[in-house]
Structure formats: C-alpha cells, structure tokens
Amino acid sequence: MNAKKLAMFFNKIEDLKVECFLCPHKCIIGPDNLGVCGTRENIKGSLYALNYDKVTSIALDPIEKKPLNHFKPGSMILSVGSFGCNLKCSFCQNWTIAQENPKCYKITPKELTKKAVELTSKGNIGIAFTYNEPSIWYEFVYDTSILSKEANLSNVLVTNGYIERKALEKLIPFIDAMNIDLKAYTHSFYRDICKGQLKHVKDTIEFAASKCHVEVTMLIIPGLNDSIQDIGLASKWLSYISPDIVLHLTRFFPNYKMKDVMPTPIQILESAKKEALKYLNFVYFGNV
Questions:
Q1: What is the pLDDT at residue 155?
Q2: Does residue 2 carry a pLDDT above 80?
Q3: Domains in the chain and their CATH numbers?
Q4: pLDDT digits 0-9 by tens, 229-246
Q5: Long-range contacts of 225-233 (CB under 8 A, 24+ apart)
Q6: Rounded-to-integer distance, Cα 194 and Cα 257, Å
Q7: What is the mean pLDDT of residues 194-222?
Q8: Phi, psi of 54 (to 5 degrees)
Q9: Which residues pair with 129 in a beta bridge?
Q10: How far apart, in whole angstroms, are the C-alpha atoms of residue 97 and residue 17?
C-alpha cells in the first residue's frame, strides 16, 4: 500500500490544526478532518492529499472539447480527472466526481506520462487535467506536469480558477494552456451559488493570461447569470486583458441541484454573443 502524499501549501498551527493555503478558502482543518475540497486531510497535525494518485476518468479527447479552440486546433489530448472540488456549484455538470465519493483507480505520474507518450501515435499532444477541479489535485498535477514537459508534451488545465497565487506561480511554468470558468460576473452569484468569491477567479484569469494561452468559459444559466449587461461587463473586462482572449458561451442543461431550471434558450446565447463581440474578437457557443 502506498504511503499517503504529504500536501503542499499548509502551515501547522495550534492544537494539531493546520491552515491550508492552496486555495482562497484557506481552510483551518482539525485532526481527522477534511478541507472544503474533500481531498486534503489533517492526519496527526500534518496535511495529506488523499487524491494524489487517484483517477476517476480518462479519455483521449479532441482539444476543442476542453474547450480550447485556439490552442493547437485539430489535435487530441489525453484528458484525466480525479475527485473533489473547492467550489460547491449547485449546477455542477460533473457532480458525480466533483461532489461525491466516486470509484477510483490508481495511476502514478510516471505511468500517466508514459500513457500520454504512447498515444502520440494517435495524435495526442499532451495531458489535460480536467473533469473535476485540477487545482485541488495539485501535487499530482505538479509532479505529472514536470514529467510531461520533459517528454515534450503539452499540459492543459481546465479549471475554476480558484487557487492562491503562490501555488499558481509554482505550477504555471509547466502549463501551456488553461480554460478557466468565469461562472458569473456578480459577487452574489459566486457567494450564493458557488460558495466562493469572484475576485479570486478574476485574479487567476489576469495572471494566467500573462503566462500561457487562456480561454474562458461562461455557462449561461437562465434567470441566474444570463443578464446581457453582466455578460457585456465580463467581456469588456476580458478585453482589457486582451481582446483576443477566446470566450466560450455554454448552454446550460438541468443537472445536480438545478434540475428544475430550464435549458438555456438559444436566443439568450445569441444575444450574449452579440454583446460579447462588441469587446472580444472570438466568441463561440458550447453545448448547442
């Protein structure tokens, strides 16, 4: 049986408690307890990553499925995910692995990199850490990304952007592209629906865009984040970073705790795209 993986980015504090500073929640975790993400456990006053070598999903996908439309288009990428998430979105599209305790199997960074290299004959360009939230799979993603770059592969993160700057700065030299979710452009949506804060996601988008290729996804949910004015404000803000940042406007379908919300009407997406194109050069639909 493998030894548990000691987590990065935590401090020991009084009474065998630890403070995790991987993400903006900065959880104070008592002995035998987990952080908000459900993947980091305090064991006898030290923090351990329970998901280090645990995989729930793996597939060879088109790069456009991440979605990344302007990063090596037409290529394939080995997509892999674990379990857990540090946001609690009630509309989660991957809730069975992000919010539950799914079946896992083990794989090491070396084994995953070897698999990715073997798949280059089928058009694979690298590894995409996706499906659940990769930032809280940090230790595995970091170790694997180093090996992947040594093998001349590309590394991609599909992320909610909810990560502390110090952790992101350490990882991003090994990351080639990111798709970052901008779940809404209001503080109240993040606070009430996602249990997070918008400003941290904006900070991640701004910093990441200066270091690697970044595309942004907004899942448009009827009645909750479909204000054309807010979508315009989000697009205008993104244009300040670069008008060439790719924006994906994705159609919502009922899921998880939002099964009573109707799918996004196509006309809402069309109006949102028209507004976004006032500020951005590249806007695409998803899930239509």
A1: 98
A2: no
A3: 5-49 (no CATH), 54-286 (3.20.20.70)
A4: 999 999 999 999 999 999
A5: 225/183, 225/184, 225/185, 225/186, 225/189, 226/264, 226/268, 226/272, 228/271, 228/272, 228/275, 230/184, 230/185, 230/186, 231/185, 231/272, 231/275, 231/276, 232/275, 232/276, 232/278, 232/279, 233/185
A6: 12
A7: 97
A8: -105, 125
A9: 80, 157
A10: 27
pLDDT in tens, 121-176: 999 999 999 999 999 999 999 999 999 999 999 999 999 999 999 999 999 999 99
User: At residue 231, what is the residue type?
Assistant: I
Asked whether the beta carbons of 4 and 47 are under 8 A apart, the reply is no
Q: Which two tokens stand for residue 255?
A: 């899921």
Asked if 20 and 47 touch (Cβ cutoff 8 Å), the reply is: yes
In this structure, what token pair is assigned to residue 189?
Answer: 């949506």
Spatial contact of 94 and 101, defined as CB atoms under 8 Å apart: no
Task: Please give the pLDDT value at position 197.
Answer: 97
Residue 23 structure tokens? 């993400």
Look at residues 41, 39, 42 and name the one whose alpha carbon lies nearest to residue 51: 39
